[in-house]
Amino acid sequence: MQQFLWREWQRRGVFAWILWPLSRIFWIVMTARRASFSAGWRRTFRSAQPVMIVGNLTVGGAGKTPVVIALVEALRKQGFRPGVISRGYGARIKAPRAVTLNADAREVGDEPLLIAQRTGAPVWVCPDRAAAARALCDAHPEINLIISDDGLQHYQLARDVELAVFDERLGGNGWLLPAGPLREPLARARDATLVHAHAARPSWPNTFAFQLRFGDAWQISHPDRRRPLAEFIGARILAAAGIGAPERFFSMLRGIGLTLQTQALPDHFAWQCNPFIKVSADIILVTEKDAVKCRAGGDARFWAVPVHTTLDPRLLTLIMEKIRG
């Protein structure tokens, strides 16, 4: 279904035109909601610490979580002490909750757990991001910057910097849901736009490219074991990904010379068991987002592939200027 929708959302075909009237209704509701915050009819919470939102204007994954991880690491080098908040997608969370390194992804969300494990930064989750920000600041008074993983449309939380992330699909056909992939119009104001380096460069203001690259794979049954991906060339490989854009993961693997069978899984796939016990493959490669919840059952074929992000230094300069006023 995800693949079908994105295929249709890349063009203004019959499917999109049928749904276009519903997009006008979506626009009315979206505009009224945002106006209610702008007019002060609905309250916003402003944290004592600056808040940066890293989100999407489109539905589905665009590489947002690797960007958050890269920002945490890069801003630390500039003297900031960032903490992270997130919705905790898929987890049953009613009150703010800290994400510990050995937490269950089903209870805190896969992306927050991955961010916590990769960065060591304090991470709190709650559907109410304002409540998550309060809890984060109360528990960690040492932080001086809050980074929100997603939440551009969560206007209850006031923000100082807004970044919108796009992959090679950009804004699709340019229409709002459900006729297109957009949550808000492409013309929506933001401080910067991040676009995957392989995408066509749009002529939007303050647009910066970001580059994704693979690190050494690590074995899920023995996380201390690492191997360069080049060592898997010639093996029978199954690549599986439960992310918003699995084909990006597959194409990057093919780009380094690997021959693959592929299995696209639903985004935030639960991995309650090993679905590939009977699959004939020497190696099974998955994303780190899948690895934090993968029930491989000791299957030594499972290897997680970390993704590292290179950011434009000019983007970091812009962010620091905004944060410091």
Automatic annotation (TrEMBL):
Keywords: ATP-binding, Kinase, Lipid A biosynthesis, Lipid biosynthesis, Lipid metabolism, Membrane, Nucleotide-binding, Transferase, Transmembrane, Transmembrane helix. One of its GO terms (molecular function) is lipid-A 4'-kinase activity. GO terms for biological process: lipid A biosynthetic process; lipopolysaccharide core region biosynthetic process. CDD domains: SIMIBI. InterPro entries: LpxK, P-loop_NTPase. Coiled coil: none annotated. GO terms for cellular component: plasma membrane. Pathway: Glycolipid biosynthesis; lipid IV(A) biosynthesis; lipid IV(A) from (3R)-3-hydroxytetradecanoyl-[acyl-carrier-protein] and UDP-N-acetyl-alpha-D-glucosamine: step 6/6. It catalyses: a lipid A disaccharide + ATP = a lipid IVA + ADP + H(+). Transfers the gamma-phosphate of ATP to the 4'-position of a tetraacyldisaccharide 1-phosphate intermediate (termed DS-1-P) to form tetraacyldisaccharide 1,4'-bis-phosphate (lipid IVA). This is Tetraacyldisaccharide 4'-kinase. It comes from Candidatus Glomeribacter gigasporarum BEG34.
